Amino acid sequence: MSFLNNLFFGYYPYIAGTVFLVGSVVRFDMSQYTWKTNSSQLFDSSRRFRLGNALFHIGVIFLFFGHLIGLLMPHSWYPIFGLTATSKQLLAMISGGLFGVLALIGGAILIHRRLTNERVRANSGQMDLFILLLLYVQLILGMLTIPISATHLDGSMMLLLADWAQHIVTFRPEAAAYVAEASWVFKLHLFLGITIFLLFPFTRLVHIWSAPVWYLGRSYQLVRQRQA
To answer: What is the pLDDT of residues 184-208, one digit of tens each?
Structure first.
């Protein structure tokens, strides 16, 4: 069991991280025409799709950055933001639960649409549905961690998970030891999260690299109007 724990949470993150970075660069260099969202909006732009798409993306984006900041923020910074381990965990449970529900609702709409809409299904690759289902399972696991976290509101498990993440990104040894005693739900949630990074270069998720965040800082915007 110790061997598997070290394999999955000590070595596997670096394998996945390497594939994530190198695979993204190689795909951009060799397959730029596949570097796109493959949006299915052209085949179905119904109001329900727009709702599901918005809920899913809002929820997932918040959860991603919430995890990123929550796990990598040094413990010594908590007082700067007026937080304790307990209050930070409560904040994570409440906000994560709220945005998790939004993402689950949106994801359910998108999965149902992709499975039942003939035009969308015909223009979907196997990996398109697989990664969407994988993200949905990951969302469910994340929601399942909330009642478990409620049994230890002292923030002890949250601190251990943060220590694990910080040891991983700073290449410090013995990272896996911090999650050795964690619940299987937390471990499976971590494992699937790492796996998503591993699969990232082989899916439509690569379009995230090309998100036009620079567009928000433009001092002007061109608007085309159709003349009568």
So the answer is: 999 999 999 999 999 999 988 888 8
DSSP state at residue 73: S
pLDDT one-digit tens code per residue, 88-98: 999 999 999 99
List Cβ neighbours of 102 (8 Å cut-off, separation of 6 or more).
55, 56, 58, 59
Helix (H, G, I), strand (E, B) or coil at 43: coil
Q: 103 with 56: CB under 8 angstroms? A: yes
198: CB partners within 8 A, 6+ apart: 15, 16, 19, 20
User: Is 20 within 8 Å of 201 (Cβ atoms)?
Assistant: yes
Q: Which amino acid is at 192?
A: L
Nearest CA to 178 among 162, 189, 191, 193? 162
Give the pair of three-digit tokens for residue 225.
């109007």
Give exposure, 124-160, as e/b (b: 16+ Cβ within 10 Å).
Answer: beeebeebbebbbebbebbbebeeebeeeeebebbbb
**Alpha-carbon gap, residue 107 to 127, rounded angstroms:** 16
